[in-house]
Automatic annotation (TrEMBL):
Protein name: peroxidase
Disulfide bond sites: 23-26, 74-280, 173-198
UniProt organism field: Musa troglodytarum
UniProt remark on cofactor binding: Binds 1 heme b (iron(II)-protoporphyrin IX) group per subunit.
CDD domains assigned to the protein according to its UniProt record, in alphabetical order: secretory_peroxidase (cd00693)
GO molecular function annotation: heme binding; lactoperoxidase activity; metal ion binding
Length: 423
């Protein structure tokens, strides 16, 4: 989250909202991609063309899977990312970022922080229609908003405190157009300022900050704006609380943190309900038969070794990504590592077949990786799987030629070790 928020300060806001949209359930259902046979929530009205940050969760999940495969749910990762996004959101200067590595109690850095109760499991299903009907709309009036939160066990005070999330982030013109053209209780100067970048028709995706003054700082300005009628989603009741938050940043921060914990506790899946996904975008698939128990734990270790070796290899010999890709192809009319076998006096392998002789490259890279993998987990991970991973990582790394990009790659790296088959 540190790297992410430095590169894209809005991402703190986007992950906070992603968590909210998941959290009328808190089960990572919002992270599932649609497939030909599965209709997830990403294309529900409040989410389509609007939710952001899925690839950040993918990157975190891939790293977490390397350390402890099949253990930490996507739902818990999203809860933690939302919390850290809020805490880090105003940390935009490198100096502060560095300071942050040392002082690291988050509280001093930006928004409030809170303890995230963990142990959620991931949904095995999703509901686009529930997302459409349960999530509040920007056209909702106050009683509809209160009712939507009450239906999830949150009271009006929670709702008002949580709305303070709009102290960060951006909204699309299509979300607030009707307010700046039609509402009588919006400051006229503010409305015409917004209208300049949000015409009465067209420009639907033009962005504007939800907090006019400090969109990248988690503070109580949202409430001060509400009072000055410079906000987009005001309705004029809950006044006493809005007044209090507008003058008492500490009260807002404390209520917001407490309400985030309550929101994060909405109907989590625990015990044996749900599952722990290995890829947040997809449901686990059924166990492949005949694989030894724990195979995917060791495959994850192999995956790291492949990635590290491929980084060095690609830097030393940029063509190697191409060569390993082809080696995999020539193995893969079978995908069984038969192409890697050397000829012997009594065995005629494939290396000297017409399309392969004097042409295939990269055998020694696979040898190096296999030797490392054998040191960690002898006799467990097949050469065929190693070759498949090396071909994938070679492709992902092939354009990484500059050292700076190489370093960046350590952080962005979401091509990394997501194991696709479940274990
Ligand atoms: C009270 C009911 C709420 C309504 C009607 C509402 C509505 C909206 C709308 C329409 C947007 C702009 C989306 C777009 O144009 O793409 C937005 C953005 C946002 N919302 Fe809410 N929201 C509500 C509650 C919340 C809550 C409870 C949270 C989190 C605790 C939250 C966090 C955010 C954030 C951080 C953004 C900016 C996201 C970004 O920049 O990517 N909202 N909200």
């Amino acid at each position: 989250m540190r790297t992410t928020v430095l590169l894209d300060p809005r991402m703190g806001a986007s992950l906070l909202r992603l968590f909210f949209h998941d959290c009328f359930g808190c089960d990572a259902s919002v992270l599932l991609d649609d497939t030909a046979t599965f209709n997830g929530e990403k294309n529900a009205g409040p989410n389509a063309n609007s939710l952001r940050g899925f690839e950040v969760i993918d990157t975190i999940k891939a790293e977490v899977e390397l350390q402890c495969p099949g253990t930490v749910s996507c739902a818990d990762i999203l809860a933690l990312a939302a919390r850290d996004g809020v805490a880090l959101v105003s940390v935009v200067a490198t100096s502060l970022y560095l300071l942050c590595s040392y002082t690291d109690n988050f509280a001093c850095l930006g928004g409030p922080s809170w303890r995230v109760p963990l142990g959620r499991r991931d949904a095995t299903t999703a509901s686009q229609s529930a997302a459409n009907s349960n999530l509040p709309s920007p056209a909702s009036n106050l009683s509809q908003l209160i009712a939507a939160f009450a239906a999830k066990g949150l009271n009006a005070r929670d709702m008002t405190a949580l709305s303070g999330a709009h102290t960060i982030g951006q909204a699309r013109c299509v979300s607030f157009r009707s307010h700046i053209y039609n509402d009588a209780n919006v400051d006229a100067g503010f409305a015409s300022q917004r209208q300049r970048n949000c015409p009465s028709s067209g420009g639907d995706n033009n962005l504007a900050p939800l907090d006019v003054q400090t969109p990248n700082t988690f503070d109580n300005t949202y409430f001060r704006n509400l009072i000055a009628l410079r906000e987009l989603f005001n309705n004029g009741t809950q006044d006493a609380l809005v007044q209090q938050y507008s003058t008492n940043a500490g009260a807002f921060a404390a209520d917001f943190a407490a309400a985030m914990v309550r929101m994060g506790n909405i109907s989590p899946l625990t015990g044996s309900s749900g599952e722990i996904r290995s890829d947040c975008r997809r449901l686990r698939q059924t166990l492949l038969p005949l694989l030894p128990r724990g195979y995917f734990k060791w495959a994850a270790v192999a995956c790291t070794i492949v990635r590290q070796t491929m980084r060095t290899t690609g830097l030393l010999d940029p063509r190697m990504g191409a060569s390993l890709l082809r080696l995999f192809f020539h193995d893969c009319f079978g995908c069984d590592a038969s192409v890697l076998l050397d000829d012997t006096a009594t065995f005629n392998g494939e290396k000297n077949a017409g399309p392969n002789a004097n042409s295939l490259r990269g055998f020694e890279v696979i040898d190096t990786i296999k030797a490392e993998v054998e040191l960690q987990c002898p006799g467990t991970v097949s050469c065929a799987d190693i070759l498949a991973l090396a071909a994938r990582d070679g492709v992902a790394l092939v354009s990484v030629v500059a050292t700076s990009l190489y370093l960046l790659c350590s952080y962005t790296d979401n091509f990394a070790c997501v194991l696709d088959r479940g274990d």
